[in-house]
Write a structure and sequence with these properties.
Length: about 120
């Protein structure tokens, strides 16, 4: 007979492996996006600095990341930033919705596709 711990482990291991794979993918993708935008790739790994860089990429002013500390406003501002982020790479509103709703697919497209950083719009 199997114990419940072994059965739980067999069901948990695939989820852990998927989580680790998505984490590594996210690191590689954001590293590549930062480099496309002229930012240091390692900047995507530093917790507060990466928000500064994302705001600088999307808005042209990195200090706007401080707005993310304001409750309720941060959600709306974050969504607008995603659309600005897409436009900074020459993509349209539809691609912004893709980043918002299906980020695991659209961020790698942004990183490894032919999109070039054109600056804040």
């Amino acid at each position: 007979m199997y114990s419940y711990d072994v059965i739980a482990g067999l069901f948990t291991l695939p989820f852990i492996m998927i989580y680790l794979a998505l984490t590594v993918l996210g690191i590689v993708v954001m590293w590549k996006i930062f480099e496309k935008a002229g930012k240091p790739g390692w900047g995507s790994l530093i917790p507060i600095y990466n928000f500064y860089c994302i705001m600088d990429i999307a808005w042209g002013n990195g200090w706007l990341f401080l707005i993310l500390f304001v409750p309720f406003v941060n959600g709306i501002f974050g969504i607008i930033t995603i659309f600005k982020f897409a436009m900074a790479f020459g993509k349209g509103i539809a691609f912004g919705f893709g980043l918002l709703l299906l980020g695991v697919i659209f961020y790698p497209i942004l990183a490894f596709g032919d999109a070039e950083y054109i600056g804040p719009q």
